[in-house]
Amino acid sequence: xxxxxxxxxxxxxxxxxxxxxxxxxxxxxxxxxxVLAGTIGLTPSLAYNVTVGAGGLGAADQGQSTNGEDSTxxxxxxxxxxxGAGDNASPNDYSANTGxxxxxxxxxxxxxxxxxxDGTSGQGNAGGDAYNNTAGTTSQANxxxxxxxxxxxxxGSISSxxxxxxxxxxxxxGTATYYxxxxxxAGFSTGGIGGLxxxxxxxxxxxxxxxxxxxxxxxxxxxWQYVDxxxxxxxxxxxxxxxxxxxxxxxxPTVTTDGSYNIxxxxxxxxxxx
Length: 274
Fold this sequence. Notes:
This protein is mainly beta and 274 residues long. The chain contains one helix and twelve strands, in the order E-E-E-E-E-H-E-E-E-E-E-E-E.
């Protein structure tokens, strides 16, 4: 079309936002960060900014969790994961929050608090609901799993917290890898399992949840009681695959090859120019 004599630079991209933090006190798992993947043409000699979102904070001592931060590249925005529902001690009654994938619900007498939150269409899925523990039995107080990029979080059951939703698999680096799994929910004796793709396992009575995996966008794990700390969501990542070679980068991306392709993996914010 005459705009670029050499034509646009064609790149494949994977943009993953930070995962949401897990909730505290019979709590839901954090939702995974949103995921965007595709192919785009870039203008030669133009610097493109890349933002890698941090994971959301897990709640501690009856506090509120936070959503994961957005990741951006090439005018595209992957939305940070929603935090898991938290403390059931009024007035600290934090419902699950929406995000790339939604956070899971917590055990609570009111139905809105128990429900998982919605994800963003095209980026993730909803969190699971907490077990509807109408009898008020402590051993049946189990939260809902956070949503994952590849599937919804599981509901809590009579015996365990809900598992986090499965993430989504990508081979953009040349190796099939899962990203953006939801965080597992808290359960009295059995916590939910983190979704494949970096999601954290949920906690149990007296045991903290595991940590979400950095640079996967996985959701944080819910804590069973407020004296335990919920875990943070995993930070996001931006990966670029192209036959071209960058003329300049900032932010120290990891550079690898897969056959004739160059792979640029950003684990912190920076920029890239071709």
